[in-house]
C-alpha cells in the first residue's frame, strides 16, 4: 500500500497537493499530518513524507520519519530566500551557490537551518530519497502567502529603478512540483520557480489592484515609509524584508526542469491571477484623482508622524 504523508496540508499548496495525490491511481492513501499531532503514529507505515509546514517543525517530522522503516522518500519545501538578497547576487542563482540568508529575516534563516537538518538526516538514512525544493514566492488565485506579500510584493514607495526583479510561482505549479519530486524519486536540491523573471516595475504594475497609486521616494525615505506603513497596517514591509525588495534573488529552474517537470503558468499569469478584484475602475476619473491624492496625503502624514516620533524619542533619551 502506497501511503503519502503531507505536513502543512491545510495551506494553499498543501490542499492542492493533497487533491493531486488523491487523484493519483498509484496512491492508496494520503495522510494529513497536523502540527503538534501524534506524528510517529501517523507516519507509521508511510511510503513517503512531504513536509510543506513550518521550517521550525522539520526536526519533529524528521524524527517521526526515522521511526518508520517504510519511509522511502522525504521531500522538504524550502524557500529561495535562503540564498539571501544581496547586491552582488548572480542573476539567476543556481543550486550550487552558497546560502547567505539575510540575518535579519528569521524566515530565511530558519529555512537554511532546516535544510542543514534535512541534509544531516539524509546522510544518516542513505536508503531514503531526499529532495529539497527551494520555492520562490507562491501565489494563489485571489490570495497570497506572507512570503509573496512581503518578500515578493514590489513596493509602491520605491522608485522603479530601485526595485529588484521578481518571480511568482502559481500555486498549482508548486503542488505539481512536489508531487513530481515524490513520484520521480528525486534526490538533492532543486530551485522551484517559473521560467525567467519580471522586472520590479513590471511586477508592481501587474500586482496593482487598479489604483495605480505609487509614491516614488528616495531609497532611504522609502525604507522608513515602508516600515511605518507596515506598523500602521497600511501595507509596506518590515525592515527585515527590505533587502529582498532592493536586491536580486531570482533563481534558475533548469535543474528541476531537466527531471521532466515544467510550469504551466508564467510569472505574469501567476501574479495577475492572484490579484484581487478592484472597485477602482468603477469610479469616475475625477473621483480616482481625489482618492489618489488622499492616499498620498495619508502616506506622507504617516511618514512625517513617524519621523517626528523618532526625533522626540531620541531627544528624550538624550535628556
Describe how the helices and strands are arranged:
Blueprint lengths: L2 E5 L4 H11 L6 E5 L5 H5 L4 E4 L6 H9 L6 E7 L26 H19 L4 E7 L2 E3 L2 E2 L1 H7 L16 E2 H13 L4 E5 L7 H8 L11 H13 L10 H5 L7 H4 L9 H8 L10 H34 L1
Parallel strand pairs: 1-2, 1-3, 3-4, 4-5, 5-9, 6-8
Antiparallel strand pairs: 6-7
Describe the structure.
The chain has helices at 12-22, 39-43, 58-66, 106-124, 146-152, 171-183, 200-207, 219-231, 242-246, 254-257, 267-274, 285-318, and strands at residues 3-7, 29-33, 48-51, 73-79, 129-135, 138-140, 143-144, 169-170, 188-192. It has 319 residues and is α/β, with parallel strands linked by helices. It has a 6-stranded parallel beta sheet, with helices on both faces. A 3-stranded mixed beta sheet has the order 7-6-8. Helix 4 (106-124) links the parallel strand 4 (73-79) and strand 5 (129-135). The chain is globular and about 65 Å long. The relative contact order is 0.13.
Which class do the helix and strand fractions yield?
Answer: alpha/beta
Low-confidence stretches: 277-285
> For the CA atoms, what is the radius of gyration?
22 Å
Strand order of the largest sheet: 2-1-3-4-5-9
Query: Mind summarizing the main beta sheet?
Result: 6 strands, parallel
| Helix content class | 40-55%
Shape estimate: globular
Average pLDDT value?
A: 85
- Distance from first to last alpha carbon: 72 Å
Oligomer state of the chains in this structure: single chain
Order of helix and strand elements from N to C terminus: EHEHEHEHEEEHEHEHHHHHH
| β-strand amount | 5-15%
> How many β-strand stretches?
9
Amino acid at each position: 500500500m502506497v501511503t503519502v504523508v503531507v505536513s502543512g496540508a491545510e495551506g494553499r499548496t498543501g490542499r492542492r497537493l493533497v487533491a493531486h495525490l488523491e487523484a493519483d491511481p498509484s496512491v492508496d492513501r494520503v495522510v494529513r499530518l497536523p502540527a503538534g499531532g501524534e506524528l510517529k503514529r501517523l507516519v507509521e507505515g508511510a511510503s513517503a513524507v512531504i513536509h510543506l509546514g513550518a521550517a521550525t517543525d522539520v526536526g519533529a517530522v524528521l524524527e517521526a520519519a526515522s521511526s518508520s522503516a517504510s519511509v522511502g522518500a522525504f521531500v522538504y519545501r524550502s524557500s529561495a530566500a535562503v540564498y539571501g538578497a544581496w547586491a552582488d547576487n548572480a542573476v539567476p542563482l543556481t543550486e550550487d551557490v552558497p546560502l547567505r540568508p539575510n540575518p535579519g529575516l528569521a524566515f530565511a534563516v530558519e529555512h537554511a537551518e532546516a535544510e542543514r537538518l534535512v541534509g544531516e538526516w539524509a546522510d544518516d538514512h542513505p536508503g531514503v530519497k531526499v529532495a529539497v525544493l527551494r520555492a520562490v514566492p507562491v501565489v494563489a488565485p485571489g490570495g497570497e502567502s506572507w512570503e509573496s506579500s512581503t518578500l515578493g510584493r514590489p513596493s509602491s514607495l520605491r522608485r522603479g529603478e530601485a526595485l529588484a526583479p521578481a518571480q511568482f510561482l502559481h500555486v498549482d505549479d508548486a503542488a505539481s512540483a512536489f508531487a513530481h519530486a515524490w513520484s520521480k524519486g528525486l534526490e538533492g536540491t532543486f530551485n522551484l520557480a517559473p521560467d525567467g523573471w519580471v522586472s520590479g516595475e513590471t511586477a508592481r504594475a501587474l500586482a496593482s489592484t487598479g489604483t495605480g497609486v505609487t509614491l516614488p521616494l528616495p531609497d532611504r525615505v522609502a525604507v522608513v515609509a515602508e516600515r511605518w506603513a507596515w506598523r500602521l497596517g497600511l501595507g509596506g514591509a518590515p525592515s527585515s524584508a527590505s533587502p529582498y525588495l532592493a536586491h536580486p534573488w531570482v533563481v534558475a529552474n533548469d535543474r528541476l526542469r531537466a527531471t521532466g517537470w515544467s510550469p504551466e503558468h508564467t510569472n505574469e499569469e501567476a501574479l495577475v491571477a492572484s490579484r484581487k478584484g478592484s472597485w477602482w475602475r468603477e469610479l469616475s476619473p475625477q473621483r480616482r484623482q481625489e482618492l489618489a491624492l488622499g492616499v498620498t496625503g495619508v502616506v506622507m502624514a504617516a511618514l512625517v508622524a513617524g519621523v517626528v516620533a523618532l526625533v522626540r524619542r531620541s531627544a528624550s533619551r538624550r535628556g
